Amino acid sequence: MEGVVLDTLRGTAEGGGPLWGRFDPDWYRRTYPMAAGEADPLAFYLSQGARLGHSPNRYFDEAFYVGEHEQVAQAVAEGRVACGFEHYCLSGRDERPAHWLFEPGFYRQLHKDLTDAALAKGGFANLYDHYLKRGAQEGRQAHLLFSPQIYRRHMADTAGHPVPDGMGAFQHYLTWIEEDGGDVPTTPYFDAAWYFLHYPEVEQAVAERRFKSALHHYLSNPEPSAFDPLEYFRERFYIERYSDIEKVIGRGKWFRNAYLHFLRYGQHELRNPTSFINLQYYWARRSSVVVNAELAKVVEPFAHLLTVGLLKGLAFAPTGAPIDVPEKQARALFLSHAENMAPQHARRPIDFTLQGPAQVCVIVVVHNHLAMTLMTLASLRDNYAGTIQLILVDSGSSDEVRQIQRYVRGMVHLRFETNIGFIHACNSALLHANAPAILFLNNDVRLSTGAVAAALARLESDPKIGVVGAKVIRTNEKLQEAGCIIWRDGKTNGYMRDWAPLSPEANFVRDVDFVSGVFLMARADLVARIGGFDPQFAPAYYEDADLCLQVWQEGYRVVYDPNAVVYHYEYGSSRDSGAAFGLMHKNQKAFHAKHLQALKHRFANTPEALLEARFAGRTQPKILYIEDYIPLRSLGAGAVRSNDLIRVMAGMGYQVTVFPVHGTAAPLAEIYADFPDTVEIIHDLNHHDFNKFINDRKTYFDCIWICRAHNLNFLHGYLEELKLNPNKTSIVLDTEAIFSLREELQARRENRPFNLGEAMAREFKHGHFCQEIVTVSPAEAAVLSEFGFP
């Protein structure tokens, strides 16, 4: 090295030279023990140190500079320059960062006054020279992950080591971490404690002084995309979700990793940092919390979430939680809505006139409540464009229902002078039914779009399906039922009652014990063969459970389909809820006596049995499929393969539950459109909830299919604590990709040493915990076999 490089090192250039170029002999001796006894450390650096990868001072990081820029590393390897510092002095100073905590592009963009003319006039060699001589002392920020204000505040208020007046926070920080002062907060965007917890090998590396801090490791390690900076950003998710950034991400490119792109641009474009954070949703609702004047100035969406939203408990994704409305008020609003609609039906009657053979016969039993009945019938007519044979049974009404012909046309109208009850009324209607499918429908419901068509399609999808039921939601937006359970003692449960309608457990198709008569669609010939509802349960209650149990005994299935949704007033056809509960108790005893032999094989009525009891009939093996995130096909790459696997499993009849380790912020419509409707998708949980989730289901699954080795390593402790019986629950590791092989290939390209055996041992350290390991190719299977995984 000679000429301008030597002048720079000796600080003999005009004006004393840039600080990043001055050789610091005292620092050099402390940093490199082999030079500690050298009388002339600069001569040692020039003759040996530069070629050994030494830095001339604390402001130029040789290892970072060479490691970050492939072209520089190649120039050094080929001998065109002696070291990275020489390259920086000759050509790199204008564009390339000399230190992991200085980003020239960001510094120039943030401080518009630093034009080339201004730098030249001030006698600064480049932007970094300005920062070291003046910018840091002025409190200017030069990197997204180092805020001088946050660092100064912490050192003064918490650490008890305030930054001296006239000294830049940057210079103070470098000295602090060199002296092993420990990691200190420099930004809300990086969490050192979380980083060490999730990457213990990094904590060990810092302890051994191979890196000076967690932040130093994050910004200078040779695998920029292999580490996440905090709990609320996932590098891999962001790269796969936003493929447009691929060309600008990587060492030596515009952004070292995806996180720096997100901080600089992505958060302002409201891109999602993880699968479980919807930044657009959060930012639109941020004004719902009152903050102090300082926090109110936070304009970066992600910073606002980290410093305000999380502390205040603001929602950062739709939860689907039920609205907390008193049911009495909700019922009043539901009834008011019905009454407000009634006048329009007087002017424009609801028309069920048949234009050809009926596709479905709908039986509605009515006892008073005209407005509610008209709302139900209007909803039915609007809901299904096909031909409907409507049989309306007036069971002794005394109000305007007696004149219902004025408001409804084309129906079969059966009128009884006395209230004969639901069962007798339905059985009377069955004598007039003339369609292949029958729908028993309460007169106090409002149908969601497509409910009838969805149920009819389900009924016709398999000749062994005898009955289809709907997701029933009460007026307060809480579930009444998502299919129903019959217990050994003859009592029944509406599964998921009082839960949110969007709960994962309520949103997949499954065989159930029975569905309620609120919305019960059945094959007409099957109902006729059974003889309709059993009169011993008259006037009502348990007739639906009895009918469905007989359907099962006839060799047919009863299916719950969440694609059919109805809103139910509940007890709207009988205002005396006390009398209703009395009838339930009486008929439960009769039901138990009638089906005593069949009920012996039902589950006992305990909370622990709920998950198993929600299924009826012969259940198929249950598989828990664990992925980084919900594998939507739009994410591409490995997500498509996972999605295909889940489809195959579901197509084979397996009952699949998908658990995303990092949650999701994808719209529920997109999620459910991408999977078979028999798959249970746990869209509202993530790794924070996994321990409780798996303990609640520790005897439930026959197979736990873990996609990707890092998820096995992350969840291994939880699974090991379960002490699962491998003969009951097998654990399968699906490698998806062997990342050690990718790392080896990258090392070869960069001509650096790499120990594949050690990498494989780390990646598959819990591989022997699994009963099976699945690979994507015979070649990868052979590699695993070579390393002891047959």
TrEMBL record:
Keyword list, A-Z: Transferase
Keyword Aminoacyl-tRNA synthetase: no
Signal peptide (from-to): none
UniProt xrefs under Pfam families: Glycos_transf_2 (PF00535)
Superkingdom of origin organism: Bacteria
Domain annotation Glycosyltransferase 2-like: ranges: 361-480
InterPro entries named in the record: Glyco_trans_2-like (IPR001173), Nucleotide-diphossugar_trans (IPR029044)
GO molecular function, one term: transferase activity
Name the record gives this protein: Glycosyl transferase family 2
